[in-house]
Every structure is written in C-alpha cells, then in structure tokens.
Design goal:
The complex is a heterodimer of chains A (396) and B (352). Chain A is 44% helix and 15% strand. Chain A has 396 residues and is α+β, with helices and mostly antiparallel strands. A 4-stranded mixed β-sheet of chain A has the order 1-4-5-8. In chain A, a hairpin with a 2-residue loop joins β2 and β3. Chain A is globular, with a radius of gyration of 23 Å. Chain B has a domain of 142 residues: Up-down Bundle (Butyryl-CoA Dehydrogenase, subunit A, domain 3), CATH 1.20.140. In chain B, strands 1, 2, 3, 4, 5, 6 and 7 form a 7-stranded mixed β-sheet that branches. In chain B, strands 8-9 form a two-stranded antiparallel sheet. In chain B, β8 and β9 form a beta hairpin. The chains are: A alpha+beta (396), B alpha+beta (352). At the A-B interface, α7, α8, α9 and α11 of A face α7, β9, α8, α9 and α11 of B. The structure holds flavin-adenine dinucleotide (FAD). The site of flavin-adenine dinucleotide has 17 residues of chain A, from β3 and α11.
Chain lengths: 396, 352
C-alpha cells in the first residue's frame, strides 16, 4: 500500500499550484466584477485541463484521459487555494454524465455547454406523490404526438425546482409494459404554459423544493435520452453518479473538525468541554467512524484508479455518511445545550450562534431520505452486497 | 497511490485460511474448548510452517522482513479461524527482540520464533499500558506477578513488561510459576504468571512501539472474528426457513444483517490504515493504533451479539460454532485495555 501520489503527480501538483497562484486572485477583484472573473478563471482552468475533464473539447470541456489521481490532485489544490471548481448542481452531476453516456450528438451539442455555463438549471423530476422509494411506479404520462411527447402528471420534492429552467424526468410511456419497462427518460423545458410549480417549504424553514404540475406539456422526441421504454436503465446511470457524489470524506472530516472546535470553545463546569471525559470519549468514538469512512473512500478511490470494480463497501458509503452525520449533530447538540432551542438564521448570515448546528441535524435528516432512504440503502446492502434473498414484492 | 491489497497479500490470506480450515476445523475447535489443552498444537505448527512467526523478522534470522500490514492481514485470518496459539505474542515478541540491540538475544531466539520452535507470549501486567507495568528488575533478575498471560503453560519465553515501561525476555523455567485461570475464551486461555527472581534479558526496544503492534494485531484479529460472525449469519439467513421462506428474506432481519455489515466492512480500512501508518512511521501512527483497537473492540462485541440474536436458539448453544466467536469478542474487548482506555489515550495524543 502506498498513499503517496507518486513523482509524476507531485510534479503535476506543482503545475496546478503555479497556475492557481497566477490565475486565482479574487482579492484583486471588485465585487460587481466577481462573476465575470470567476467565469474567466474557469475558462482558463479548463484550457489547462483542470476542469470539465470528462467533457469533450467540442462541447466546451477539456477532454482529459481518465486519471483519478490527477483529478484528486486538482481537487486538493483548488480547495487549498479556495478556488472555484466546476459549476455544481443536478445538471453537471446528473444530466451531463447521462448525456455523455447515452445522449445523441445533437443532444450533447444542445445541452452540455449551456449547462456548464449555468444558463440551464436542471430539476430532477423523478419522485411523485405516489412514487418515491418505488420509483419505477411513476405515473406521469407521456404520449407521442408526431415528433413531440405530450406530458401530463405531477412531480414533487424537486430540489432547486423554483430556479430550474429545465427538467430531466421519468415518464410512463408504455401503459401495457411491465412497470420497469414502461418508462422513458425525457428532457424538457419548463418554459411552457402547461407547467405550474409551487414551492414547498422544507422542515428547515429555509431552502425549498417544489411541486410541479404538467398539463399537456410538450417536449421534442429528439430530447428523449435512450430508447423508448428504456428510461429505467438510463436513470440508473444517473443515480450511480449521484451516489458517487454524496459520499464525501472531506465534508465529514470538516464537520468533525468543527465539532472538536466546538468542544474546545464550549465551557462546561468551568473548563472547556473537551476536558470532560464523556465528551472526549464521545469524540473519539465518532472519530473511529469518521476515519473508517475516510479510509474506505481511499479504498474506493484506489479501486477506481486501478480501473477495478468497486468493493462492497461502496454500497455502504451513503448510509454510513448519514449515520455519522447524525452522531456528529447530536453530540454538538449536547454541547450547545439550551442554544438548541433557538431558530438558526439562514446559512451565510453573519454572526450566527451555536444554534447553527441545527443545520447539521437537518442536513443529516435530509440525507436519510433524499437519493434513496435509509431502509432502501439497507435493502441494497443486504441484497446486492450480501446476497440475501430479494423481497419478491419489490420486483427487479 | 494504492489502498487495496496486492494479489500476493490476498494469496497469503487464502493460504492461511486454507491451512486453518484444514488443521483447525470445527470439530477440533470443540475438542479444544471442551478439553484441557491450552491451545491446539497441530494447527499452530501448521501456521508456523507457513512462516507466520517470522513475518516481521529480518531475513538473516529466517524471517520474511514484511511489515505490520502483512502481519495484521495474517492476524485477521487468524481471528476468522479462531487461531488458538499466541499469534500476537509470537509476532510482537520477535519484533521486540529484532528492534533491540542485543545480537546474542537475536541469534538465540529469532530463528526459533520464526520457525515456531519456540512459543512466545506477552506478560505485560497491571493495566496493560506500558506506564502501568510493575514487574521489578534487580540486575538481570525480575520479580512480580502478571495476570492474563495467554498460553502461559505452553510458552517457552515471555515478553515481560517491567516497571518504568521497559521490556525483558524471560525463559520458562524453575523461576517462573504458572497458575492457570478459568478462562471465558477457551481458545485463548489465560494464566497468572509469577516471576521469582527469574533470569531475564533486558531489551532496548521501544515498548510503546511493541504495544502499538499488539494493539493493531488485536484489532485485526477482532476484524476477522467479526467478519466470521457476519459470514455465519448471512449463510444461516439464506438457509434457515420459517413461515415458508428463508429468514433472510424477512426485511427486519435483512436490515439487521445489513447493519452488521455496515459495522464490519468500513472498519477494515481503519485496520489497514493503522498498520500502514505504523509501517511508514507516520505522525498519527500511535493514535491510529489506539482508535483502530477501540473501534474494532466495540464492533466485534456488537456483531457477536447481533449474530447470536439473528440465529435464534441455535446461536445460544455451546455446540454451535458461534459461541466460540462470541466468547472471543468478549476477550478481545478486554485484552490490552478496553475501548474507553484507548479512546482516552487517543484524546490525549491529540492534545485535547
Ligand atoms: C431534501 C430532499 C430533496 C429531494 N430532492 C429530490 C429531487 O430533486 N428530485 C426528486 O425526484 N426527488 C427528490 N427527493 C425525494 C426523495 O427521493 C424521496 O423522498 C425518497 O426517494 C423517498 O420517497 P417518498 O418520499 O415517497 O417516501 P416513501 O417511499 O413513501 O417512504 C416512506 C418510508 O417508507 C419506507 N419504505 C418505502 N419502501 C420501503 C421498502 N421497500 N422497504 C422498507 N421501507 C420502505 C422508507 O424508507 C421511508 O421510511 C428529495 C427528498 C428530500 C428529503
């Protein structure tokens, strides 16, 4: 085993660092010019091959050969310099990878650049009031009319839905086919008179997801990804990308470091809480899990770098992250005491007090539902990971 | 960057697994736990013939000069197969001698430890931690009493923890008295060992390092044991039927078993990292050893309990193999100090 990146990658790291020193100087930029400065920076970084590596040049990417290690070096150096990486969100995380794998040339030309530039903002139109964990039961219907699909139905819990300009959707197109085989993966513009949307206030009180209603909304057949009736398989490529981006050891490491900081700053019985044996024990107990998660992500990383299939621990990362996040949150709540009875001001507000830890509680709670609930994760671990007999009620 | 096992490491684990399956099958384990012998000599010799005693020893003394990671991978399979000899003691004692500057002790003991011609065990004493050791030395004679020494009646040599955190080597003989204890883990039986002005070789090895080695090997052993209990549970859940279907199809049980896997599989990388950090001499090596040991001690007991529960009545019997690993989990948790002890050490090492 060897956790170093090797000489070639270390010299690559130097190049990245040099580049950042020259190209990323936000302190020199006035606030109104910042947006353009960031866009320009991303363009330069893409020119160097640091960003949008998986995306072909013809669509605005840097088209680099797959190199997990170099990609990691870039992430580390950008994080260190606090420089912006690629534009985030559903579009880059889910739609673009799916287009790259399954899209036509025209679709790639049409959508990738505009998603990268942030012009197109994508909502994920999967869940419906009647279809959540049992996603393959979606009922939103699309019917073919010449070269258009005509969509009727409802989607719900769409994150960023109020800002979205476009949606990627699972729609039922084959009424008589078995449920998994009757779904088609469609892209559509939300700028259509048949689309109505309503925000739904989250339990956090802040950020919203929303509910969509579709009445004879049309989208070109040319915007369908993959074959008719093959949407379930196409969506699996999407979910795979989503799962891979949820398990983030760095984020967890950061949360744990914040927790330790809180324990140092909180006074208890006339001394810092971190001197309290119960707190010390709780912290190291959590750290055992945080590190198990981190080193397991090294394992996944190492397998990916070698081009090997991921080990079974890959199926566990989301649930692990959810549970550890919850433990961190509860331990923090114990430390902040009565302050946990205050409503936290929205993230980014100046002067937030210890009650900001409630964000962590809400975040890990959301994590236990979004992207496949905890029970669904346990099904996956039990059935796919351990080979336990499948529940016939759940189908394929 | 590479953080998975090499093909060779996998092959070594498979070889040990096969050897243990052949030389220490279930019937022999039961004979051992129902009998009087302290450990099963035949399977021990088979492991020594594979070179486990000399994994970390220099080649010039018959060792294979590998790192702690390779030793931990072996200890893991040992835990999976309920190895009954003092494997951790054998490896840690050899390393303590190899890391001391006493060529006579090296030539006298290392070749024998490498082949298994001599059996070594740990006699640390008091609360396990080097700063608590209390066997006293006058010149090169040592005196004192140490509880919880594994395989003490069959050991040829003891790695003894001395007051002041030093280590000494004491040969079995007339100045060493062994009083067996009624032991809960009957695959790893314990004794009190009394040293009566016993002749000793003082070792200059850093006892903190040797203690870390023992902690990491013990964590690896616990990992193997937890994996075994999980594997037995998965197999049983596929085969046992109730209400006309395999019990593993009931979601409640499926989820309990998934939760067990969530405790075992991610912990594997924690053990690997601790061993890797030791081998590379990383700054966080000592803390990694403490955290890995505490974490795996907890996981093993938790898995042992869940495994028994998942089996129902059969799991609660003496005859069913699970009893062996359940008892090993209780031993593992106490051995070298409980998880709370090592968590507090980890807190101190972070300057908290
Ligand atoms: C913060 C957040 C953001 C989201 N963003 C989006 C988005 O952008 N786009 C989108 O399409 N969706 C989104 N979702 C929806 C999310 O994917 C669904 O909520 C989730 O898949 C669960 O579906 P459901 O809400 O219908 O619950 P249900 O499926 O009804 O589940 C309810 C309970 O039943 C349990 N359950 C269900 N089936 C089983 C089973 N087979 N075995 C055992 N237990 C079971 C579940 O675990 C859960 O505890 C978001 C959700 C949240 C919380």
């Amino acid at each position: 085993m060897d956790l170093s990146y090797g000489e070639e990658n270390e010299s690559y790291r130097k190049d990245v660092r040099e580049f950042l020193k020259v190209a990323w100087n936000p302190a020199s930029v006035e606030k109104p010019a910042m947006k353009a400065y960031i866009a320009g920076f991303r363009e330069k970084a893409t020119g160097k091959g640091y960003l949008y590596r998986a995306i072909p040049r013809e669509f605005g990417g840097s088209q680099q050969p797959v190199d997990v290690l170099k990609a990691q070096v870039i992430r580390e150096e950008f994080a260190r310099a606090r420089a912006p990486m690629e534009v985030g969100g559903n579009g880059m995380n889910m739609v673009v990878p799916t287009l790259l794998e399954r899209g036509t040339q025209e679709q790639k030309e049409q959508f990738i650049r505009k998603t990268m530039s942030g012009e197109y903002i994508w909502g994920q139109g999967y869940s419906e009031p009647g279809s959540g964990s049992d996603l393959a039961s979606v009922r939103t219907k699309a019917v073919l009319d010449g070269d258009k699909w005509v969509i009727n139905g409802q989607k719900i819990w769409t994150s960023q839905g109020m800002d979205a300009t476009h949606m990627f959707m699972l729609a039922r197109t084959e009424a008589d086919a078995p449920k998994h085989a009757g779904i088609t993966y469609l892209l559509l513009s939300l700028d259509h008179p048949g689309v109505t949307r309503q925000p739904i206030k989250q339990i956090t009180g802040g950020a919203t997801f929303c509910e969509f209603f579709f009445e004879d909304v049309t989208t070109p057949v040319a915007w369908q990804i993959g074959d008719r009736g093959d949407g379930w398989n196409v969506s699996k490529t999407t979910l795979k990308h989503e799962r891979a981006s949820i398990g983030s050891a760095d984020m967890l490491g950061h949360q744990f470091a914040q927790l330790v900081k809180l324990a140092k700053e909180t006074q208890r019985n006339g001394q810092p809480a971190i001197k309290d044996p119960l707190v010390r024990d709780a912290l190291v107990r959590i750290e055992g899990w945080v590190l198990a998660h981190r080193y397991s992500s090294y394992r996944l990383f190492s397998h990916a770098a070698a081009g090997d299939p991921p080990p079974s621990v890959g199926l566990m990362m989301k649930l692990l992250l959810t549970e550890i996040g919850h433990d961190i949150a509860l331990t923090a709540e114990d430390m902040i005491g009565d302050e946990a009875m205050l409503e936290p001001a929205p993230p980014g507000t100046r002067g937030r007090g210890p009650e900001k830890w409630l964000d962590q509680i809400m975040g890990s709670l959301g994590n236990s539902i979004a992207g496949g609930t905890t029970n669904i994760q346990r099904n996956i671990i039990g059935e796919r990971g351990l080979g336990l007999p499948r529940d016939p009620a759940m189908g394929a | 960057m590479r953080f998975h096992l090499s093909e060779e490491q996998g092959a070594i684990q498979d070889a040990i697994r096969g050897t243990l399956a052949d030389s220490l099958p279930s019937e022999k384990l039961h004979k051992l736990i129902d009998g009087e012998a302290e450990f099963d000599r035949e399977s021990w010799d088979a492991l020594m013939a594979l070179g486990l005693g000399g994994l970390m020893l220099p080649e010039q003394y018959g060792g294979s000069d590998l790192g702690l990671l390779d030793a931990a991978l072996s200890a893991e399979v040992g835990g999976e197969g309920a190895v009954s000899g003092p494997l951790i003691g054998q490896i840690a004692t050899g390393l303590a001698i190899a890391e001391s500057d006493d060529d006579d002790a090296k030539s006298a003991w290392l070749p024998k430890l490498a082949t298994g011609d001599a059996v070594a065990t740990l006699a640390f004493g008091r609360d396990w931690l080097p700063e608590s050791w209390d066997v006293s030395a006058v010149g090169n004679r040592v005196s004192g009493s140490v509880r919880f020494v594994q395989a003490a009646t069959m050991a040829d040599v003891y790695l003894v923890g001395l007051a002041g955190g030093k280590l000494a080597l004491v040969e079995a003989g007339e100045h060493v008295e062994v009083q067996p204890l009624e032991s809960f883990d009957r695959t790893r039986r314990q004794s009190t060992v009394i040293f009566n002005s016993a002749p000793a070789t003082l070792l200059s090895a850093d006892s903190g390092r040797i203690f870390d080695v023992a902690l990491i090997l013990a964590a690896a052993d616990a990992l193997g044991g937890a994996q075994k209990a999980l594997d037995m549970t998965v197999a049983y859940a596929k085969e046992r039927e109730q209400f006309g279907q395999p019990i593993g199809q009931f979601q409640a049980l499926k989820h309990q078993i998934a939760q067990m896997a969530l405790e075992v599989e991610p912990a594997r990388a924690l053990v690997w990292y601790a061993a890797y950090a030791f081998d590379k001499g990383l700054d966080d090596a000592r803390r990694a050893a403490a955290i890995a040991n505490a974490h795996l001690s907890d996981r093993f007991v938790s898995i042992g309990r869940a495994a028994v529960a998942a089996h129902g009545g059969i799991g609660y019997t003496w005859e069913y193999d699970l009893s062996i690993w359940f008892r090993r989990s209780i031993y593992s948790r106490a051995y070298l100090g409980g998880p709370a002890v090592h968590r507090e050490r980890a807190a101190q090492l972070a300057n908290w």
